[in-house]
Amino acid sequence: MSNPPVPTISDPVTTGRASAVERAAAALPTAGLSLLSVGSLLILLLHVLPPSNRVDPMTRTISQYALESNGWMFDVGVLALAVGSMAVLAGLVRAGVVRAVSGTSLFITFWSASLTVLVIFEKYDFQNGQHTGASGMIHRMASLVAFLSLPLAVLLASRGAARRNPGWRRPAAWTRWAGIVSCACLSLLIYAIVRGFVADVSWWRVFPLGALERLIALSDILAVSVLGVWARMARTVAAEALIGSAGLADQVSDGPGGAALVQ
Fold this sequence. Notes:
By secondary structure, the protein is mostly helical. The protein contains seven helices and no strands.
């Protein structure tokens, strides 16, 4: 005659820690989207609050706001975008949408790191005659890396995840379209640069540079926000599936009087 199974009692401390970690992981997409919203709002306010509202948004780049007396709003806003993007990436990885070691993870990291570099190294102050210096060149290269990295990350995410899970086809389609729009906006900048080489015109005069940069930045922020929504949806679906499986297990295991039906 076999001995009855010995009941086990889970450690409440360990269980509490595990649930706290799980709650924190589930909150990553929401935290990322919140930081993206805060960063976007701060940069938007720079367009209307003095003294930064004197910057011409058609001809001056967004980084020009960092040179104003309320430039701290630019720094905080860009850093919020960088941290928020990394939180979105962490949420995607935790939800299984993106692998930790993948092209998407790499390019989102490049995007976030480049945004941080933009804050550390200020742009050339063309308005006051500053046209040279290592800081301005690093700032310009970081901008280019950021603008190139984000569309690639979004397109790779939509392609890889849809292959692994057919249930993600709809969010993958939305993400793919967001990446295409971001690439289309970036192509205008690439066209301007190429035309500057082959025609007798400065590349920053082909299109109003300030307006073009704002268009690219807006498309990139929207694209990474779509990734954040996807991460949030994936976590919700995973949680519902877990709850459903737990409920099914309870129905199978609990018989009359609490006796186990399956041993």
